[in-house]
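Quick one, T. Sequence first:
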Amino acid sequence: MRRAPWNFPTLLVSSFVESDVVRDPMKSAEQLLLQLASFGQGVSDAMSTATGKPDLMGNTPLRVLCLLDLDGPTRPSTISEVVGLTSGGMTKVLDRLEAAGLIERSYGVIATDHRGVSVALTGEGRRTIRVAAEALIDHLPDVSEMVKSIVALLETLQRERD
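Structure tokens:
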């Protein structure tokens, strides 16, 4: 049974037609930025709804959870490099995820650095990311339409640059 469509901004998904694009690379770039931002917001909103964790499913926490699920336990500094946060920003994100029971920090477990910290998903964190992944799979047609729109804008922008 297919769930209700994701709430991608309908105007953005359905209104892009190549002939409507002004042959101006800056305008096309702005349209692309708008589509990408809308796509990211749509995914975050959908993940918040699917998981029931609206405060924890923004882009950064979602990236942290996915990274930990795909790569396993790792150091906060490695996560910071991947998601592009300062150590202070990463600490705040990890604090929120740990308080929600989605990750756990372990101290002194890294063989080469007994002062080092390792971050890992908890069972609840793994269940949360699985629910998010299932929601994505359930909504592939919606995601596909948005991605097609983004690709069309990329192709238009590339042609305008050439």
